Model the fold of this input.
Amino acid sequence: MDKAQFSSPWMPYLLLMPQMLIIAIFFLWPAAEAIRSSFFLEDPFFGKATFVGIDNYRDALTGSDYQRTAWFTALFTILVALISLGLGLMFAVSADRVLRGQSTYKTLLMWVYAIAPPVAGLIGVMLFDQHIGPLVDFAALFGWDMRIGVNYWDTGTAMIIVATWKQIPYNFIFFLSGLQSIPSSVKEAASIDCRSEFRRFWTITFPLLAPTSFFLLILNITYAMFETFGTIDLIVKDQPGNSPVTLVYKVYRDGFRGNDLGGSSAQSVILMLIVLALTIVQFRLIERRVHYN
Amino acid sequence: MATTEIETDVPRAKAALSRKSFGGVRVYDHIVLWVGVFLMMGPLIVAFTTSTFDHVLIHKEGMQLGWGGQFMETYQTVLTQQGGFTGEVTGWLMTQNSFVLGIFFALGKIVVSMLAAYAIVYFRFRAATFCFWIIFLTLLLPLEVRILPSYEVVQQLGLLNSYTGLILPLIASATGTFFFRQFFKSVPNELLEAARIDGAGGWQFFVDMLIPLSKTMMAAIFIIMFVVGWNQYLWPTLMTTDETYFTLVRGIKQIMQIMIGADIPKYNEALAMAVLAMLPPALVIVIFQRMFIKGLVEQEK
Done:
């Protein structure tokens, strides 16, 4: 350790106590509980629990409903992450180049960051409403009869659009600060060596942004999988009959609505493993990013 | 040959660069940005303007641009009307609850994580590595995946429908701790050595040196955490069944459920509620834009 340090037999523990207490009660205990109950079959009426081994996992993974949800989640996550990254980058590149009005553009483009996912969901519900929604009218111009809440893929499309819209500002902010941290000497040298702006972007700027992009990709995947809950909850309007949902929504629905504690816990644990895998990838990337710098 | 080519090329390229960046308007970029602004702000503007119209008119003619003239009536109704099933909750009360959640979540997070980060960076003690990994673990599992057991724990502790139960579980994730750990590590060592020579103890150094040094960082994290806290949805939805604890974001679900059953839904009131729920966090990040961006970008490093 290169940091000068105090040594005190009790002070560090006292300082850490609030954090550790909160973690122990509201994190470790529930997480352990989730893992434990994922191996039990609980009777919602009598409170009896029988040990069933990995049955809950097997039932979850082989259930057709689960598989359908998993496929939709994968598609939803990939599309939301890629489209919002792409648009965020496009706006950031332009915002980095203009001089006039840059801060106004910046303010207007990041405003949506502050909006809660369910609020975005409510606005989406209105815009795609059968009676009043302008976007349904717009789709009708192309002969697309959008029926949100009735047609599986129409609902899915609306979810993807709203979730992407909500995430663009986040990517915009990160890309813009990434672009602005590229030294102007590099930019000048590049513009001398390469006239074509298009080629300059792909050969110089984009590789310099690549570490930011990889890192952002992971954050976007986490967003699409977990933080879109509110958006989805509003769009399915609590009646997820034939509507697509994500895996997190299914954990909630099976646990709270379906009273399937064991199954819901098993699904939680599967999601925990996915997050764990993503974090490992993320850390590999951070190491590489340090290398770049 | 090659040298002369470069020499002649440099001034020309420089001129091109300066012409492009300082002179004429970059048409393409402005078009892209206008499209971006249209996409991002358009839905919000339509949501706001529609909320000023009468709900029967909205039902007949769709969402509206322009000024409906019912701004005062609608927003007053949303803020003061006794809504919900018990008839006890008003928009104004929900706004207050949202502020309580946003502010105390942010403050709680700052206090808890600064103390923890200080212990980890500035003290040599045996359990340091162990504590660090436990804290790190919380970053792995978002509240959404352990939502059901968290609910049961809070229920067993008798904390359902209380501000404590609403706020404390959200503080369990350690993003703030890592943020401050990173910052404390960048504080020069000489400062601590100087403080030690002057006879400052562990607590004194923290209060007299580190806290004043961290002011900007604290403000940045406060802004981000306020927005995060204000926008919480799933947790407040589950654990507040008593309507007097509803936040605005939680109220959005309520108003949606009321709308589903209605013949002519009160679109205007629902949208007014959405506008109220988005305004405070949006104003905060727009007013403190610079600090917000700094905090956001630094936090993820």
In short: Chain B touches chain A through 112 residues (CB under 8 Å). The first helix of chain B runs from residue 2 to 23. The mean pLDDT of chain B is 84. Residues 2-80 of chain B form one domain.
